[in-house]
Amino acid sequence: MEDAESDVLMARVEWPESRVFDLREVIGYLPCNVKWANAMRFDPSDTEGKCLHFTASSKGNLFVIFSAIPDDKDSWYYVEISPRGVAIFKSQRLVVSTVDVSAVGLGADILYQSYFVCVKETSEHTVIEYGKSQGTTETGNVYLTMIDRENPQSVRFFSYGNGEETLEIVDSHIVPRSQTKANCKGDTSFDVASNMCVQSCHELCDPDRGCRRTSSSEPLATDCNACQYVKNAQTGECLEECPEDWEQRDHECYHHEPTSDLCLKNPCLNDGTCINLGGGKYKCDCHGVYGGNNCEKECEKTEDNQCCRFPLPI
């Protein structure tokens, strides 16, 4: 590179943040300007849990981070609140999300919105609830819930972060979960058994694993984090059972074309016979002096019919 080209912008690569709420497998953005302090401790391990209430203003994304070990990003849970959707991440990977219009951030730096994030820990799981407060009260609406049963983290610190735009936080305080009177709104509904708002996913989703809502309309069978029964291995859609003539392996369905279709698509030439090998494969049984994958070669055959020892003389 020439000296004149140093410190010159040569190229720029961008990945739209809105794509976070469209993809099945997502590695999330890491929050910027995350600062940890002894004063920002958080202990949700009592029987009812704790809620972090705060008021925020940002033109872009804002993050609420909870961690067991602040320097270890794999121990982070964080809630991303953007004007396009809300997502909860664990170890930088998307777990649940919503694009409900009432749940998203304002996307304006001159307007303030009050939020709350509640965390409850037991020996079996960690529950995170996201919602918006009504004014300066401890009353509000829950829009998203994550239940983590796979090696849940025991968080002890919290912090805030931002994306590309500046963030202002005021009136940050912690109260017991019992003091936060919340209604179930958006993609959530009240579950009597757990006595909390749970995410409303498609009926074929595993109810314990949640979903990543990509639409504000009816939940889709492709939004599930895990399926209750089986899954289409190609599309990711949850199914009640595998279709007829499909193969099931480890709760996944694989489609293989019938033998007749395979042999019609890949006909064996020169009176060769098509043999279905399963798994989407076939083999031609060649006759006479013909060989090759489709009996297309006139030659002296090897024992497996697939190659010619040498071409026959013309």
From TrEMBL:
Secretion signal span: none
Q: Which UniProt keywords apply?
A: Disulfide bond, EGF-like domain
Show the Gene3D superfamilies listed in the entry. Answer: Laminin
What are the EGF-like domain coordinates in residue numbering? 259-296
- For whether the record's keyword set contains Lipid biosynthesis, the answer is no
Q: Which cysteines are joined by disulfide bonds?
A: 286-295
Q: Which PROSITE patterns match?
A: EGF_3
Matching Pfam families = EGF (PF00008)
Name recorded for this polypeptide: EGF-like domain-containing protein
Upper lineage ranks? Answer: Eukaryota, Metazoa, Cnidaria, Anthozoa, Hexacorallia
